[in-house]
Amino acid sequence: MSERTRWGILSTGGIATSFVQDLKLLPDAEVLAVGSRSAESAQAFAGKHEIPRAYGSWRELADDGDLDVVYVATPHSAHYAATRILLEAGRAVLCEKPFTLDLTTTVELIDIARERGIFLMEAMWMRCNPSVLRLVELIRDGAIGEVTSVHADFGVAGPFEPTHRMRAPELGGGALLDLGVYPVSFAHLILGMPEHVRAWAKIGPEGTDENTGIIFGYDSGAIAALTSGMLGQTALGATVSGTKGRIVLDPPFFRPDRFTLHRDGAEPEVVGVTREGLGYLYEAAEVQRCLRAGLTESPLVPHAVTIQVMELLDKIREQIGLEYS
């Protein structure tokens, strides 16, 4: 690798724009190329963000041997195809969440990366957020005792047109994979893999979930109560409760700037970590750290976690009747 990590961007949508803006805050990052299915779209994106190279196909981007890593920011339904093309070309990949649409394709991509010794990471930025990392440290140090429950919600008001990625099944639509992946991932981060999973959802006319409730049960006695939806704005909050206190995250819980630690018998403590940019730079910095260290997966977002979270999403989809062709 050169002194600067050379990034490629696959897709030209809103989240790709936000990611590129944050990359500019990292002095050792360089956005070298962008790729899209449309040459016009790639050229427009490149011009707007001063990116030297623009490709009118994913394959052309994948074949650029000067790239150290490529960020995949397509709609969910294209994550698998885009990431596979990149891995088969030998490119390291940071792929947006949800990693794919199901467990089978998730495992397939991870197997390819492992067999070829290529770095691969799911872009679950929450797990790289400084405030979230500090929260995990406090919980592991016993700040609130043994964790007894996790509550988290992610709901937006909409409305969304039937062809919007939030609703269209051909784009991997539905509240669960776009929004619910955050409460599910947060509960997994705090409590691990549950022994019991129960879920219910209101399914919309397109066949995707509009409002979903999830309960995780653990043999320890702990529970997680999680919701996601696109029928009304929720507080975007999360609380972790334990036998000796609780932690309340400021919204949005998946990108918190601070949280409040309530220890039994003590005054509340506000814990804050100054956030830079929009919050994407932390996952980008983690990717760059791993690449320089010669790692093929991140200890913050390891392959095993991506697999387990997708296994949970598959179980939830089965219970609520959410299917993708």
Automatic annotation (TrEMBL):
State if Oxidoreductase is listed as a keyword.
yes
Organism per entry: Phytohabitans maris
Q: Mind telling me what this protein is named? A: Gfo/Idh/MocA family oxidoreductase
Sorted keywords for this record are: Oxidoreductase
Q: Where is the GFO/IDH/MocA-like oxidoreductase domain?
A: 133-248
What the entry lists under PANTHER family is as follows: OXIDOREDUCTASES, TRANS-1,2-DIHYDROBENZENE-1,2-DIOL DEHYDROGENASE
Chain coiled-coil ranges: none
Q: Domain Gfo/Idh/MocA-like oxidoreductase N-terminal: where?
A: 6-121
Give TM segment ranges.
none
The record's Gene3D superfamilies line, in alphabetical order, gives:
Dihydrodipicolinate Reductase, domain 2, NAD(P)-binding Rossmann-like Domain
InterPro entries linked: Gfo/Idh/MocA-like_OxRdtase_N, Gfo/Idh/MocA_domain, GFO_IDH_MocA-like_dom, NAD(P)-bd_dom_sf
Q: Would you identify the family this protein belongs to, as annotated?
A: Belongs to the Gfo/Idh/MocA family.
Q: Tell me which Pfam families the record gives.
A: GFO_IDH_MocA, GFO_IDH_MocA_C3
